[in-house]
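Researcher: I'd like a candidate sequence for this fold, 129 residues long. If you have to choose between options at a position, lean toward the conservative one.
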């Protein structure tokens, strides 16, 4: 069974997910920094980027009427770049990263890769205008 998700819904899902990531990284994980193993300034960097992604996605959700494919592909590419940045930082801080840190980031990356795949698939679909 193939479920079609509109670009508008994907922008909303992306925006809410970005805000959740920003909250966890900037508030929850930074408060547990010793148990995560990544410096606070890195967690704050990883938290601020999703705030901008949320603004982008909310803007597309509320205001975009045309070129949805283009902007959907744009957020998918931004999310992919964020994943690569995160992976790079994880390996750079590998020595200090705890099992709890690895668990959080692996789960976040899996969720992001699934979302990216859906966004890219939808951005090439004939269903979206």
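Model: Candidate sequence:
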């Amino acid at each position: 069974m193939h479920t079609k998700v509109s670009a508008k819904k994907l922008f909303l899902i992306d925006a809410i997910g970005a805000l959740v990531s920003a909250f966890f990284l900037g508030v929850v994980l930074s408060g547990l920094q010793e148990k995560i193993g990544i410096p606070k300034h890195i967690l704050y960097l990883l938290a601020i980027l999703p705030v901008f992604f949320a603004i982008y996605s909310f803007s597309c959700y509320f205001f975009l009427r045309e070129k949805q494919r283009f902007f959907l592909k744009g957020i998918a590419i931004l999310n992919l770049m964020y994943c690569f940045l995160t992976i790079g930082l994880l390996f750079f801080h590998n020595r200090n990263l705890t099992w709890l840190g690895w668990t959080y980031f692996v789960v976040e990356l899996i969720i992001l890769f699934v979302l990216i795949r859906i966004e890219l698939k939808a951005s090439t679909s004939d269903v979206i205008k």
